[in-house]
Amino acid sequence: MSTLVDIETEVIGIVKDDSGKLVNPADYDQAVNTALMRYSRHKPLKVTDDISGDGTNQILLPVGWSPEFSSVLSIEYPIGDFPPTLLDEEDYYVIDRAGTATLDFELAATDSVRVTYTMLRTADDIPDIDLHAFCFLAASICLELLANSFTQDGDSTINADVVDHKSKGADFASRSKKLMALYKDHMGIKDNDTSPAASAVADLDIKYPGGSERLTHPRWARKRR
């Protein structure tokens, strides 16, 4: 798996900044953090945790829950069925973005639900198969910052120097665009598409033909637990 040092080293090698504006690895932190946000939207980290009840119909979502990013993908209850029994979306809702959810039934202190949710990725969470593409994304952001820096730097009174700045800005912008295209191609993202790839969560709370409930763990019984 990747580390922040590994990523910074590869990104520095890709950018090859000869302008001296990005001097040390810390200068790349902003670009890497921005890349982690974008990559997380395209491929969020999916985590599953068991949460114990407290005798009420409210549960505290796991510590890894990110208020401005995370979303609940599924809640399994009761735990251990095969196939898993997942609550319908109308059986719960997140009432507090800081991490509180309400169930439509009370959960005893001796019982638990299994929550699958999304999290922001860190540098340690990037799978090897995506590592190089992620570095292309981070390097693209670095080059975009450099391009903007040179494009906006037009204060010099020496015309040749101004032309040189514009030329460097255009070169950085061109390289940034090519690297972004490589990242999108790897991730299967269309050139004009900025939204995450579609995903689906199957509802395994299957009813028998004709709409009848299961013999064990019918919906009405789960809601009374």
Describe the protein in words:
- With 225 residues, the chain is of the alpha+beta class.
- The protein has 2 domains: 4-42 and 123-187, no CATH class; 45-120 and 203-220, no CATH class.
- The protein contains 5 helices and 6 strands.
- It has helices spanning 4-15, 29-42, 128-152, 159-187, 219-224; strands spanning 45-52, 58-60, 72-76, 92-96, 100-103, 112-119.
- The strands form 2 sheets. The protein has a 3-stranded antiparallel β-sheet with strand order 1-6-3, with no helix packed on it.
- A hairpin with a 3-residue loop joins strand 4 (92-96) and strand 5 (100-103).
- Helix 1 crosses helix 3 (128-152) and helix 3 (128-152) packs antiparallel against helix 4 (159-187).
- It starts with a helix and ends with a helix.
- Major β-sheet annotation: 3 strands, antiparallel
- Please tally the β strands and state the result: 6
Provide the helix percentage. 25-40%
Q: What low-confidence regions span 5 or more consecutive residues with pLDDT below 50?
A: 196-218, 220-225
Domain unit count: 2
Determine the N-to-C terminus distance.
Answer: 42 Å
Task: Look at the structure and give the mean pLDDT.
Answer: 82
Q: Which radius of gyration do the C-alpha atoms yield?
A: 24 Å
The sequence of SSEs as H and E is HHEEEEEEHHH
The best one-word shape is: elongated
Helical run tally = 5
